[in-house]
Amino acid sequence: MMEDTEQASEEVPEQALNRLRISGIIALLLVVGGFITAWLQGQAIIPGDPGVTIGFSILMATILICCGASLQTAGYSQRIIGYQAVENVFAVGKDHYDRGEWEEALDVFRNLLGPDNDHKRALYYGARCLEQLGRWNEMKDYCERYLELVPDDSEVWDMLSTANKRLFEYDGAKDAKEKADGFR
Questions:
Q1: Among 27, 55, 163, 166, which residue carries the largest CB count within 10 Å?
Q2: Dihedrals phi, psi of 154, to nearest 5 degrees
Q3: How far apart are CA 57 and CA 64, in angstroms?
Q4: Alpha carbon distances (Å) from 75 to 15, 61, 88, 175
């Protein structure tokens, strides 16, 4: 289930924009080509009805733009389904967390992290679970990864300071505390 979401989110918005730009350029070329052809028809250089040619080129460009927009919308819709599945799994983990079932919640949050460890809420709540379990090294890792993604979260800087203190890394604890205070 997580792999489906990862795969769906791999399409970078820039790639989607490029496809739309290309569709727009092709549509513009169709219209310009239609006007050139209609002008040539109006000058009796090539046979045909200029009005029909312009109408047909505009129709084709409109169809191209509409099809591109429909495909883009379908792509977004497929990603929403994947995101909802992840949210449902997160809700299960959050329920365990709210009941104080730290190990069960941590298992769910770990599964949500994926290969890039980039699910921010799973990192945050995973760190909270690890704090409750007294697993300071792992908590420190979760906090550090979370702070790579959200560097201005004073609460997580405080959590990192706590983990460092528990690991007798007082310089790290002091630095984290100073950063936390700087974001308040």
A1: 163
A2: -65, -35
A3: 11
A4: 12, 21, 21, 44
DSSP designation for 13: H
CB-count exposure of residue 20 (10 Å: 0-12, 13-18, 19+): middle
Q: Is 1 exposed, middle or buried (0-12, 13-18, 19+ CB in 10 A)?
A: exposed
How many independent structural domains does the chain possess?
2
- Whether 49 and 76 map to the same domain: the answer is yes
**Token pair recorded at residue 131:** 């704090």
| Contact between residue 148 and residue 156 where contact means Cβ atoms under 8 Å apart | no
The predicted-structure confidence for 24-48, as pLDDT tens digits, reads as follows: 888 899 899 999 999 999 999 999 9
**Separation CA 105–CA 107 (nearest Å):** 5
Q: Domain of 45?
A: 1-85
In the chain, the amino acid numbered 72 is Q
Q: What pLDDT, in 10s, does the model give residues 122-150?
A: 999 999 999 999 999 999 999 999 999 99
Q: What is the pTM of this model?
A: 0.61
Residue 16 sits in the same domain as residue 50: yes
